[in-house]
Amino acid sequence: MEKISLNERIEYKEEKFTKRIVFKDEQSVVFVLNFMPGQELPAHRHPGAMLYLTVLQGEGIITADGKDTGVSAGDAVRCEGHEVFSFRCTGTQPASIYVMLTSIPDERYSAEV
Fold this sequence. Notes:
Layout: E1 18-24, E2 28-35, E3 40-44, E4 50-57, E5 59-64, E6 67-72, E7 76-80, E8 85-89, E9 95-102
């Protein structure tokens, strides 16, 4: 068993969003994305993978294949890897999202930024 505090993975930066790895193995990666108001994750895909996320705090808009969906703390979302996915923090407070990416296509998806 391995236990990690998510609070240690919540780190905000004024200049850009952050990605902090929680767990990682050959087939999956779990991380926390942290956004200041107005920051966004650019549109991208995760070919061959599945994406599960839970909003820990804050609010924003998830866009999947051109469809906008408002999300806030406590919401859970599932996206298939072929969907074009993005997130924008639209609230007045920072937002943090817990993300699990399964069947990762390559190492680029499991690197911190």
